[in-house]
Amino acid sequence: MSDYKYSAHLLKELIIRIPLVLKTLLLHGIQMSPGAGKQDLRTEITTAMIRSFMTFSAPVDKTQKNSMRDPGVKGPMWVSKVTLSRPEFDVRDAVVRAIEDLKTTGNETFALPPVADVEAEWTGFRSGVGKRTPQPDLSEEEKYQELRKESTSDMTILYFHGGAYFLMDPCTHRVPVAHLSRLTGAPILSVRYRLAPQNPFPAALVDALTAYLSLIHPPPGSLHKPVPANKIIIAGDSAGGNLSLVLLQTLLTLKRASRPVRFHGQDVDIELPGGVALISPWCDLTHSMPSIVNNLKFDYLDMKGTPSEDPEEPTAISSAPFPPGSVWPVDPPRLNMFTDANMMLHPLVSPMAAKPELWEGAPPVLISTGEELLTDESFVVARRMHRAGVNVVVDQFEGMPHCHAMIMMSTATGKQFFKNVAGFCLDAAAGRVKSTGQVNWYGQGLKTSREIPLAEVVDLDEDRVDARMSKSASWLVRDEEALRKEWRAQAKL
Protein backbone atom coordinates (compact mmCIF):
# COMPACT_ATOMS: atom_id res chain seq x y z
CA MET A 1 0.00 0.00 0.00
CA SER A 2 1.45 3.40 -1.00
CA ASP A 3 1.83 6.16 1.59
CA TYR A 4 -1.03 8.08 -0.07
CA LYS A 5 -3.39 5.11 0.00
CA TYR A 6 -2.39 4.31 3.58
CA SER A 7 -3.09 7.92 4.70
CA ALA A 8 -6.43 7.93 2.89
CA HIS A 9 -7.36 4.62 4.49
CA LEU A 10 -6.43 5.91 7.95
CA LEU A 11 -8.47 9.09 7.42
CA LYS A 12 -11.48 7.01 6.42
CA GLU A 13 -11.10 4.86 9.54
CA LEU A 14 -10.99 7.97 11.74
CA ILE A 15 -14.07 9.51 10.10
CA ILE A 16 -16.23 6.43 10.67
CA ARG A 17 -15.32 6.59 14.36
CA ILE A 18 -16.77 10.06 14.89
CA PRO A 19 -19.98 8.56 16.41
CA LEU A 20 -17.82 6.64 18.89
CA VAL A 21 -16.09 9.87 19.94
CA LEU A 22 -19.43 11.64 20.36
CA LYS A 23 -20.83 8.76 22.41
CA THR A 24 -17.76 8.78 24.65
CA LEU A 25 -18.07 12.56 25.10
CA LEU A 26 -21.71 12.24 26.12
CA LEU A 27 -21.25 9.36 28.55
CA HIS A 28 -18.22 11.01 30.11
CA GLY A 29 -20.15 14.27 30.54
CA ILE A 30 -22.98 12.58 32.44
CA GLN A 31 -20.59 10.36 34.45
CA MET A 32 -21.95 7.12 32.97
CA SER A 33 -18.89 6.05 31.01
CA PRO A 34 -16.97 2.83 31.84
CA GLY A 35 -14.03 4.79 33.23
CA ALA A 36 -16.09 7.36 35.14
CA GLY A 37 -14.22 8.69 38.16
CA LYS A 38 -10.90 7.08 37.16
CA GLN A 39 -10.23 8.32 33.63
CA ASP A 40 -10.28 11.83 32.26
CA LEU A 41 -11.88 12.58 28.88
CA ARG A 42 -8.66 12.30 26.89
CA THR A 43 -7.88 8.89 28.37
CA GLU A 44 -11.40 7.58 27.72
CA ILE A 45 -11.42 8.73 24.09
CA THR A 46 -7.92 7.37 23.48
CA THR A 47 -8.81 4.02 25.05
CA ALA A 48 -12.08 3.73 23.11
CA MET A 49 -10.41 4.63 19.80
CA ILE A 50 -7.55 2.16 20.17
CA ARG A 51 -9.96 -0.59 21.24
CA SER A 52 -12.06 0.03 18.12
CA PHE A 53 -9.02 -0.50 15.88
CA MET A 54 -8.14 -3.86 17.49
CA THR A 55 -10.47 -5.93 15.31
CA PHE A 56 -7.93 -8.50 14.04
CA SER A 57 -9.92 -8.63 10.79
CA ALA A 58 -6.87 -8.92 8.52
CA PRO A 59 -4.44 -11.86 8.30
CA VAL A 60 -1.49 -11.55 10.65
CA ASP A 61 1.03 -11.21 7.80
CA LYS A 62 -0.78 -8.14 6.50
CA THR A 63 -1.11 -6.71 10.01
CA GLN A 64 2.61 -7.29 10.59
CA LYS A 65 3.47 -5.47 7.39
CA ASN A 66 1.41 -2.42 8.37
CA SER A 67 2.90 -2.36 11.88
CA MET A 68 6.41 -2.26 10.40
CA ARG A 69 5.87 0.82 8.24
CA ASP A 70 8.86 3.09 8.80
CA PRO A 71 7.66 6.71 9.17
CA GLY A 72 11.19 8.01 8.76
CA VAL A 73 13.31 9.77 11.33
CA LYS A 74 12.26 13.32 12.20
CA GLY A 75 12.55 15.54 15.21
CA PRO A 76 14.79 15.47 18.28
CA MET A 77 16.30 12.02 17.80
CA TRP A 78 19.24 10.25 16.21
CA VAL A 79 18.66 6.77 14.81
CA SER A 80 21.44 4.54 13.53
CA LYS A 81 20.44 1.14 12.14
CA VAL A 82 22.85 -1.72 12.83
CA THR A 83 23.15 -5.46 12.36
CA LEU A 84 24.51 -7.56 15.22
CA SER A 85 26.27 -10.40 13.44
CA ARG A 86 25.18 -13.99 13.97
CA PRO A 87 27.13 -15.72 16.75
CA GLU A 88 27.99 -19.40 17.10
CA PHE A 89 25.24 -21.91 17.87
CA ASP A 90 26.46 -21.80 21.48
CA VAL A 91 24.15 -18.86 22.21
CA ARG A 92 21.12 -20.84 21.09
CA ASP A 93 22.39 -23.89 22.96
CA ALA A 94 22.75 -21.80 26.13
CA VAL A 95 19.10 -20.75 25.84
CA VAL A 96 18.10 -24.39 25.32
CA ARG A 97 20.06 -25.38 28.45
CA ALA A 98 18.18 -22.75 30.44
CA ILE A 99 14.87 -24.02 29.07
CA GLU A 100 15.75 -27.58 30.06
CA ASP A 101 16.91 -26.52 33.54
CA LEU A 102 13.61 -24.72 34.20
CA LYS A 103 11.14 -27.27 32.84
CA THR A 104 8.25 -27.91 35.22
CA THR A 105 6.52 -30.96 33.69
CA GLY A 106 9.05 -32.51 31.35
CA ASN A 107 6.45 -32.59 28.57
CA GLU A 108 7.22 -29.13 27.17
CA THR A 109 7.92 -28.86 23.45
CA PHE A 110 9.38 -26.04 21.40
CA ALA A 111 10.89 -25.37 18.00
CA LEU A 112 14.68 -25.20 17.75
CA PRO A 113 15.33 -21.85 16.02
CA PRO A 114 18.21 -21.09 13.68
CA VAL A 115 20.82 -18.61 14.86
CA ALA A 116 20.61 -15.40 12.85
CA ASP A 117 21.85 -11.85 12.55
CA VAL A 118 19.92 -9.49 14.83
CA GLU A 119 18.66 -6.22 13.41
CA ALA A 120 18.59 -3.26 15.79
CA GLU A 121 18.82 0.50 15.91
CA TRP A 122 20.64 2.87 18.18
CA THR A 123 18.42 5.73 19.34
CA GLY A 124 19.52 8.90 21.07
CA PHE A 125 18.37 12.45 21.72
CA ARG A 126 19.19 15.12 19.15
CA SER A 127 19.24 18.65 20.51
CA GLY A 128 18.41 21.95 18.82
CA VAL A 129 15.90 20.73 16.23
CA GLY A 130 12.14 20.95 15.75
CA LYS A 131 9.62 18.12 15.73
CA ARG A 132 9.61 17.86 11.93
CA THR A 133 13.31 18.32 11.25
CA PRO A 134 14.53 15.32 9.21
CA GLN A 135 17.63 13.41 10.16
CA PRO A 136 20.62 14.40 7.97
CA ASP A 137 21.64 12.11 5.14
CA LEU A 138 24.63 10.53 6.88
CA SER A 139 26.03 7.02 7.03
CA GLU A 140 24.86 4.80 9.88
CA GLU A 141 28.30 5.12 11.49
CA GLU A 142 28.16 8.92 11.26
CA LYS A 143 24.68 8.95 12.80
CA TYR A 144 25.95 6.77 15.63
CA GLN A 145 28.89 9.10 16.26
CA GLU A 146 26.54 12.10 16.40
CA LEU A 147 24.30 10.17 18.80
CA ARG A 148 27.23 9.38 21.07
CA LYS A 149 28.32 13.02 21.12
CA GLU A 150 24.99 13.92 22.75
CA SER A 151 25.02 11.04 25.23
CA THR A 152 25.95 12.19 28.72
CA SER A 153 25.65 8.90 30.63
CA ASP A 154 27.93 5.87 30.86
CA MET A 155 24.78 3.75 30.94
CA THR A 156 23.25 1.94 27.94
CA ILE A 157 19.61 0.87 27.74
CA LEU A 158 18.77 -2.35 25.85
CA TYR A 159 15.15 -1.96 24.73
CA PHE A 160 12.64 -4.57 23.56
CA HIS A 161 9.45 -3.28 21.90
CA GLY A 162 5.96 -4.61 22.58
CA GLY A 163 3.42 -6.07 20.19
CA ALA A 164 2.47 -9.49 21.63
CA TYR A 165 5.50 -11.06 19.87
CA PHE A 166 3.83 -10.85 16.47
CA LEU A 167 3.42 -7.11 15.82
CA MET A 168 5.32 -3.85 15.67
CA ASP A 169 8.89 -2.83 15.21
CA PRO A 170 11.41 -0.51 16.88
CA CYS A 171 10.41 2.31 14.49
CA THR A 172 6.95 2.43 16.13
CA HIS A 173 8.61 3.18 19.49
CA ARG A 174 11.13 5.80 18.39
CA VAL A 175 9.45 8.85 19.94
CA PRO A 176 9.09 7.48 23.52
CA VAL A 177 12.48 5.75 23.32
CA ALA A 178 14.17 8.97 22.18
CA HIS A 179 12.43 10.79 25.04
CA LEU A 180 13.78 8.26 27.52
CA SER A 181 17.23 8.81 26.03
CA ARG A 182 16.82 12.55 26.57
CA LEU A 183 15.86 12.08 30.22
CA THR A 184 18.67 9.64 31.00
CA GLY A 185 21.39 10.89 28.66
CA ALA A 186 21.87 7.25 27.63
CA PRO A 187 22.09 5.69 24.17
CA ILE A 188 19.40 3.08 23.63
CA LEU A 189 19.74 -0.06 21.53
CA SER A 190 16.26 -1.13 20.32
CA VAL A 191 16.15 -4.72 19.08
CA ARG A 192 14.17 -5.97 16.10
CA TYR A 193 13.74 -9.52 17.38
CA ARG A 194 12.19 -12.21 15.19
CA LEU A 195 8.39 -12.25 15.23
CA ALA A 196 5.94 -15.10 15.68
CA PRO A 197 4.16 -17.08 14.32
CA GLN A 198 6.97 -17.48 11.77
CA ASN A 199 9.55 -17.62 14.57
CA PRO A 200 7.99 -19.10 17.71
CA PHE A 201 9.60 -19.46 21.12
CA PRO A 202 12.54 -19.31 21.78
CA ALA A 203 13.68 -17.38 18.66
CA ALA A 204 13.09 -13.94 20.25
CA LEU A 205 14.93 -15.02 23.41
CA VAL A 206 17.94 -16.17 21.37
CA ASP A 207 17.96 -12.74 19.66
CA ALA A 208 17.68 -10.99 23.04
CA LEU A 209 20.63 -12.91 24.49
CA THR A 210 22.65 -12.21 21.33
CA ALA A 211 21.94 -8.48 21.65
CA TYR A 212 22.84 -8.45 25.36
CA LEU A 213 26.14 -10.27 24.85
CA SER A 214 26.89 -8.04 21.84
CA LEU A 215 26.78 -4.97 24.09
CA ILE A 216 29.28 -6.46 26.52
CA HIS A 217 31.45 -8.18 23.89
CA PRO A 218 31.03 -6.26 20.60
CA PRO A 219 31.36 -8.50 17.52
CA PRO A 220 33.89 -7.49 14.85
CA GLY A 221 32.71 -4.45 12.94
CA SER A 222 30.48 -3.10 15.73
CA LEU A 223 30.04 0.65 16.07
CA HIS A 224 30.02 0.59 19.87
CA LYS A 225 32.71 -0.10 22.44
CA PRO A 226 32.24 -2.74 25.20
CA VAL A 227 29.62 -1.81 27.79
CA PRO A 228 30.10 -3.13 31.34
CA ALA A 229 27.20 -5.38 32.28
CA ASN A 230 26.37 -3.33 35.39
CA LYS A 231 25.93 -0.28 33.15
CA ILE A 232 23.29 -2.00 31.01
CA ILE A 233 19.62 -1.50 31.85
CA ILE A 234 17.29 -3.94 30.12
CA ALA A 235 13.88 -2.41 29.38
CA GLY A 236 10.73 -3.27 27.49
CA ASP A 237 6.99 -2.75 27.21
CA SER A 238 4.22 -5.37 27.06
CA ALA A 239 5.64 -8.41 25.22
CA GLY A 240 8.97 -6.57 25.32
CA GLY A 241 8.56 -6.54 29.09
CA ASN A 242 8.01 -10.28 28.94
CA LEU A 243 11.17 -10.67 26.85
CA SER A 244 13.10 -8.50 29.32
CA LEU A 245 11.99 -10.70 32.22
CA VAL A 246 12.73 -14.01 30.50
CA LEU A 247 16.13 -12.71 29.39
CA LEU A 248 16.85 -11.85 33.04
CA GLN A 249 15.67 -15.31 34.14
CA THR A 250 17.85 -16.90 31.43
CA LEU A 251 20.89 -14.96 32.65
CA LEU A 252 20.19 -15.95 36.26
CA THR A 253 19.83 -19.61 35.27
CA LEU A 254 23.02 -19.64 33.19
CA LYS A 255 24.93 -17.80 35.91
CA ARG A 256 23.87 -20.38 38.50
CA ALA A 257 25.25 -23.10 36.20
CA SER A 258 28.63 -21.27 36.05
CA ARG A 259 29.20 -22.26 32.45
CA PRO A 260 30.73 -19.77 29.98
CA VAL A 261 29.18 -19.25 26.54
CA ARG A 262 31.16 -19.27 23.32
CA PHE A 263 30.55 -15.90 21.64
CA HIS A 264 32.35 -14.81 18.47
CA GLY A 265 35.41 -16.90 19.16
CA GLN A 266 35.80 -16.39 22.90
CA ASP A 267 34.40 -17.99 26.03
CA VAL A 268 32.48 -15.35 27.99
CA ASP A 269 31.08 -15.57 31.50
CA ILE A 270 27.46 -14.63 32.14
CA GLU A 271 27.17 -11.28 33.90
CA LEU A 272 23.99 -9.65 35.17
CA PRO A 273 22.75 -6.21 34.07
CA GLY A 274 22.51 -3.18 36.32
CA GLY A 275 18.72 -3.31 36.34
CA VAL A 276 15.51 -4.10 34.47
CA ALA A 277 12.71 -1.59 33.74
CA LEU A 278 9.33 -3.05 32.76
CA ILE A 279 6.37 -1.20 31.26
CA SER A 280 3.03 -3.03 31.51
CA PRO A 281 4.85 -6.38 31.22
CA TRP A 282 3.08 -9.48 29.95
CA CYS A 283 3.91 -12.00 32.67
CA ASP A 284 1.25 -14.70 32.33
CA LEU A 285 0.47 -16.13 28.90
CA THR A 286 -2.31 -18.24 30.41
CA HIS A 287 -4.22 -15.02 31.27
CA SER A 288 -5.35 -16.57 34.54
CA MET A 289 -5.55 -13.55 36.84
CA PRO A 290 -8.74 -11.66 37.87
CA SER A 291 -7.63 -8.33 36.35
CA ILE A 292 -8.07 -9.88 32.89
CA VAL A 293 -11.81 -9.39 33.51
CA ASN A 294 -12.00 -6.86 36.34
CA ASN A 295 -10.01 -4.13 34.57
CA LEU A 296 -11.50 -4.58 31.12
CA LYS A 297 -13.44 -1.30 31.36
CA PHE A 298 -10.23 0.71 31.72
CA ASP A 299 -8.21 -0.95 28.96
CA TYR A 300 -8.19 -1.17 25.19
CA LEU A 301 -6.90 -4.76 25.35
CA ASP A 302 -9.49 -7.53 25.24
CA MET A 303 -8.45 -11.16 25.55
CA LYS A 304 -11.84 -12.32 24.19
CA GLY A 305 -12.35 -14.66 27.12
CA THR A 306 -15.38 -16.23 28.76
CA PRO A 307 -15.51 -15.23 32.45
CA SER A 308 -16.30 -17.96 34.96
CA GLU A 309 -19.22 -17.62 37.35
CA ASP A 310 -16.91 -18.95 40.08
CA PRO A 311 -14.51 -16.19 41.22
CA GLU A 312 -11.93 -18.86 42.04
CA GLU A 313 -11.94 -20.04 38.42
CA PRO A 314 -9.84 -18.25 35.76
CA THR A 315 -11.29 -16.91 32.53
CA ALA A 316 -11.32 -19.26 29.52
CA ILE A 317 -9.40 -17.44 26.79
CA SER A 318 -10.13 -18.05 23.10
CA SER A 319 -7.46 -18.78 20.52
CA ALA A 320 -5.64 -16.27 18.30
CA PRO A 321 -8.34 -14.27 16.46
CA PHE A 322 -6.65 -13.65 13.11
CA PRO A 323 -8.22 -15.04 9.92
CA PRO A 324 -6.13 -17.43 7.79
CA GLY A 325 -3.19 -15.98 5.87
CA SER A 326 0.22 -16.92 4.54
CA VAL A 327 1.83 -17.36 7.99
CA TRP A 328 -1.13 -18.35 10.20
CA PRO A 329 -2.33 -20.93 10.99
CA VAL A 330 0.77 -23.13 11.08
CA ASP A 331 1.21 -26.88 10.74
CA PRO A 332 0.87 -28.58 13.13
CA PRO A 333 -1.65 -26.05 14.48
CA ARG A 334 -1.16 -24.08 17.68
CA LEU A 335 -3.64 -22.07 19.73
CA ASN A 336 -1.03 -19.46 20.54
CA MET A 337 1.10 -17.78 17.88
CA PHE A 338 4.11 -17.62 20.16
CA THR A 339 4.42 -21.09 21.63
CA ASP A 340 2.99 -24.56 22.14
CA ALA A 341 0.31 -24.74 24.82
CA ASN A 342 2.39 -27.14 26.93
CA MET A 343 5.00 -24.36 27.39
CA MET A 344 2.59 -21.94 29.09
CA LEU A 345 3.77 -22.76 32.62
CA HIS A 346 7.45 -22.51 31.78
CA PRO A 347 9.19 -19.56 33.53
CA LEU A 348 10.80 -18.51 30.23
CA VAL A 349 7.35 -18.16 28.65
CA SER A 350 5.24 -16.96 31.60
CA PRO A 351 7.55 -15.24 34.12
CA MET A 352 4.76 -15.31 36.71
CA ALA A 353 5.32 -19.08 36.89
CA ALA A 354 8.80 -18.55 38.34
CA LYS A 355 8.97 -19.34 42.06
CA PRO A 356 10.55 -16.72 44.34
CA GLU A 357 13.83 -18.64 44.63
CA LEU A 358 14.38 -18.37 40.86
CA TRP A 359 14.64 -14.59 41.22
CA GLU A 360 17.31 -14.70 43.93
CA GLY A 361 20.32 -12.61 43.02
CA ALA A 362 18.49 -10.52 40.44
CA PRO A 363 19.44 -6.85 39.99
CA PRO A 364 16.91 -4.08 40.80
CA VAL A 365 13.63 -4.24 38.85
CA LEU A 366 11.05 -1.54 38.12
CA ILE A 367 7.51 -2.54 37.16
CA SER A 368 5.16 0.23 36.01
CA THR A 369 1.54 -0.61 35.28
CA GLY A 370 -1.82 1.02 34.82
CA GLU A 371 -5.16 -0.36 36.01
CA GLU A 372 -5.19 -2.76 33.09
CA LEU A 373 -5.74 -6.38 32.14
CA LEU A 374 -2.16 -7.34 33.01
CA THR A 375 -1.94 -5.57 36.38
CA ASP A 376 -2.42 -8.56 38.69
CA GLU A 377 0.31 -10.60 37.04
CA SER A 378 2.74 -7.69 37.39
CA PHE A 379 1.94 -7.50 41.10
CA VAL A 380 2.43 -11.25 41.62
CA VAL A 381 5.83 -11.17 39.90
CA ALA A 382 6.84 -8.14 41.99
CA ARG A 383 5.68 -9.88 45.18
CA ARG A 384 7.68 -13.01 44.39
CA MET A 385 10.76 -10.95 43.56
CA HIS A 386 10.45 -9.02 46.82
CA ARG A 387 10.22 -12.27 48.78
CA ALA A 388 13.43 -13.37 47.06
CA GLY A 389 15.22 -10.26 48.29
CA VAL A 390 15.20 -8.39 44.98
CA ASN A 391 15.08 -4.59 45.09
CA VAL A 392 11.80 -4.22 43.19
CA VAL A 393 10.07 -0.87 42.65
CA VAL A 394 6.39 -0.88 41.59
CA ASP A 395 4.35 2.02 40.23
CA GLN A 396 0.63 1.89 39.46
CA PHE A 397 -1.42 4.62 37.78
CA GLU A 398 -5.15 4.54 38.55
CA GLY A 399 -7.51 3.98 35.64
CA MET A 400 -4.73 3.96 33.05
CA PRO A 401 -4.77 1.48 30.14
CA HIS A 402 -1.99 -0.73 28.86
CA CYS A 403 1.29 1.14 28.17
CA HIS A 404 -0.57 4.40 28.80
CA ALA A 405 2.49 6.67 28.87
CA MET A 406 3.77 5.39 25.53
CA ILE A 407 0.64 6.72 23.81
CA MET A 408 -0.10 9.73 26.05
CA MET A 409 3.35 11.10 26.76
CA SER A 410 2.36 14.72 27.38
CA THR A 411 -0.20 14.03 30.12
CA ALA A 412 0.60 14.50 33.79
CA THR A 413 0.68 10.74 34.34
CA GLY A 414 2.81 10.27 31.22
CA LYS A 415 5.34 12.79 32.46
CA GLN A 416 5.41 11.21 35.92
CA PHE A 417 5.88 7.78 34.35
CA PHE A 418 8.89 8.86 32.29
CA LYS A 419 10.37 10.70 35.26
CA ASN A 420 10.10 7.54 37.35
CA VAL A 421 11.52 5.22 34.68
CA ALA A 422 14.43 7.54 33.90
CA GLY A 423 15.19 7.99 37.59
CA PHE A 424 15.15 4.25 38.15
CA CYS A 425 17.52 3.61 35.22
CA LEU A 426 20.00 6.17 36.50
CA ASP A 427 19.76 4.87 40.06
CA ALA A 428 20.13 1.23 38.98
CA ALA A 429 23.24 1.97 36.93
CA ALA A 430 24.66 3.79 39.96
CA GLY A 431 23.77 0.96 42.37
CA ARG A 432 21.48 3.01 44.58
CA VAL A 433 18.00 1.41 44.20
CA LYS A 434 16.33 0.37 47.44
CA SER A 435 13.01 -1.46 47.65
CA THR A 436 10.34 -0.55 50.21
CA GLY A 437 8.03 -3.48 49.53
CA GLN A 438 5.32 -0.96 48.62
CA VAL A 439 3.40 -0.10 45.46
CA ASN A 440 3.65 3.60 44.60
CA TRP A 441 -0.01 4.28 43.71
CA TYR A 442 -0.91 7.40 41.73
CA GLY A 443 -4.52 8.55 41.64
CA GLN A 444 -6.28 9.85 38.53
CA GLY A 445 -4.50 12.94 37.24
CA LEU A 446 -1.92 12.63 40.06
CA LYS A 447 -4.37 14.33 42.41
CA THR A 448 -3.58 11.80 45.12
CA SER A 449 -0.88 9.27 45.82
CA ARG A 450 -0.08 6.73 48.49
CA GLU A 451 1.94 3.61 49.21
CA ILE A 452 0.28 0.18 49.37
CA PRO A 453 2.11 -2.91 50.70
CA LEU A 454 2.84 -5.43 47.95
CA ALA A 455 1.27 -8.10 50.12
CA GLU A 456 -2.11 -6.35 49.86
CA VAL A 457 -2.48 -5.53 46.16
CA VAL A 458 -3.47 -9.03 44.98
CA ASP A 459 -6.09 -10.93 46.96
CA LEU A 460 -4.63 -14.32 46.02
CA ASP A 461 -1.98 -16.24 47.90
CA GLU A 462 0.78 -18.13 46.11
CA ASP A 463 -1.09 -21.46 46.06
CA ARG A 464 -4.21 -19.89 44.53
CA VAL A 465 -2.14 -18.09 41.90
CA ASP A 466 -0.47 -21.36 40.92
CA ALA A 467 -3.81 -23.18 40.87
CA ARG A 468 -5.36 -20.62 38.53
CA MET A 469 -2.37 -20.75 36.19
CA SER A 470 -2.43 -24.56 36.14
CA LYS A 471 -6.16 -24.64 35.40
CA SER A 472 -5.84 -22.16 32.52
CA ALA A 473 -2.83 -23.99 31.11
CA SER A 474 -4.64 -27.35 31.27
CA TRP A 475 -7.54 -25.90 29.26
CA LEU A 476 -5.13 -24.61 26.61
CA VAL A 477 -3.32 -27.95 26.37
CA ARG A 478 -6.66 -29.77 26.07
CA ASP A 479 -7.94 -27.46 23.33
CA GLU A 480 -4.66 -27.58 21.41
CA GLU A 481 -4.59 -31.37 21.54
CA ALA A 482 -8.14 -31.45 20.17
CA LEU A 483 -7.15 -29.03 17.41
CA ARG A 484 -4.20 -31.20 16.42
CA LYS A 485 -6.28 -34.37 16.53
CA GLU A 486 -8.72 -32.79 14.07
CA TRP A 487 -5.79 -31.62 11.89
CA ARG A 488 -4.31 -35.14 11.78
CA ALA A 489 -7.70 -36.58 10.85
CA GLN A 490 -8.08 -34.06 8.02
CA ALA A 491 -4.57 -34.87 6.78
CA LYS A 492 -5.55 -38.54 6.32
CA LEU A 493 -8.55 -37.70 4.12
Key phrases:
single chain; 493 residues; alpha/beta; Rossmann fold; 2 domains; 10-stranded mixed sheet; 14 helices; 37% helix; 14% strand; globular; AB_hydrolase_fold; GDXG_lipolytic_enzyme; hydrolase activity; hydrolase
Task: Please explain how this structure is put together.
The protein has 493 residues and is α/β, with parallel strands linked by helices. The chain has 2 domains: 3-67, no CATH class; 77-287 and 348-456, Alpha/Beta hydrolase fold, catalytic domain (Rossmann fold, 3-Layer(aba) Sandwich), CATH 3.40.50.1820. It is 37% helix and 14% strand. It has 14 helices and 14 strands. The chain has helices at residues 3-15, 18-29, 41-53, 60-67, 90-101, 140-149, 174-184, 203-216, 239-257, 291-294, 375-387, 404-407, 412-430, 462-492, and strands at 77-84, 118-125, 156-160, 188-192, 232-237, 261-263, 266-268, 275-279, 305-306, 316-317, 365-369, 392-397, 438-442, 449-453. It has a 10-stranded mixed beta sheet with strand order 1-2-4-3-5-8-11-12-13-14, sandwiched between helices. The chain has a two-stranded antiparallel sheet with strand order 6-7. It is globular.
CATH architecture of the largest domain: 3-Layer(aba) Sandwich
- Percent of residues in beta strands: 5-15%
Principal-axes geometry comes out as globular
The total count of strands amounts to 14
Straight-line distance between termini = 39 Å
The main sheet orders its strands as: 1-2-4-3-5-8-11-12-13-14
